[in-house]
Amino acid sequence: MAEAVPVRVFVADDEDDIRALVSLAVAKAGCTVTGAVADGSAALATARADLPDLVVLDVSMPGATGLEVCAALRADPATAGVRILLLSAGASPDDVARGLAAGADAYLAKPFGIAGLVRQVQALVARQPA
pTM of the prediction? Predict the structure, then answer.
């Protein structure tokens, strides 16, 4: 029986503590963090180059917002099927609607608990890719 290939997750958040927390949650969810950056432009370039299974994006980042990165990934046939989780301090229904309209698979408001983030990552990686 072949070993399961670990799910590859890429993290983009401009806050060091949040990147570390997300990386910890990804590992607890049984996935592998393939990289982490603090800038939206770098996030887009890295996601296009590495083709992870899941991208966790902060909405507010320098270079390009998480919403812009999300929309760009969805518009590119090479990355259109990548699962995307948006993280944001904006938790209003309008904020969530904007995130989902940009193409996110899920939206998690900050502050979040590590257990909730682990569950969200597990739920997203359990979905079949688009």
Answer: 0.93
